[in-house]
Sequence to fold (222 residues):
Amino acid sequence: FPVAVVVLETDYEPPSEYFYLRQEAYSSYMGKRLQLSLDPAVAYDGIRGFPAKPYDVPVMVPDFLRTPIEGKVALLTPHTSPFGVEGIVSYRPTVNPRPTTFVRTYAFTSLASRVEYADLLPLNAGNPFWTTAEREHYLETSPDPRFGQLAEEIVAAIPAELSDSDFAKALLVKLYLDERMKYPLRIRHANAPDPTAEFLFGPTNQFIGYCVHSAHAAALLW
Fold:
């Protein structure tokens, strides 16, 4: 079933040809899955909950890679936080014109990518302004050595001319998962000690799962 009506008020064509509607960003690895970070030393570039008044995200700033996108959302199902095209920089609650149809309505301004993938190849991963604590936080991963071993095997296929490109390595990981994953919602890996490890390495239902499994797998491999 549809979850929302999204109206973009800015003429925008994503370079990837897909609209990425981003809600919450999870960055704390809790043993079985990623969760929202509660560490006050780690700046959060999103919105938690639905503010009752306009809200600006303090850590999202425009740069040459992103362009502002204006839009409106009318939710048909409950959500825990607002979403927008990629990263929301400001949020504005609006009057719900049809409360019997829409759970909630709001307007947003986002920053969305405006460069082709090829233009990202020379860029380094991470943020040069991160503190040591922030860098350690974002690089925390699973103690299971199979994630690191598989990541090394995947990026070993990189062409020599791209061997220094963090983005090319990240793209290889994404393509590896894209080529293997099957997406039936009935397979949840809910009883596995580590759902992401079971999704990646089996022994049953290997590469069978849905968005939470592919997202966790990509993050831990990266």
Observations:
- The chain has five helices and nine strands.
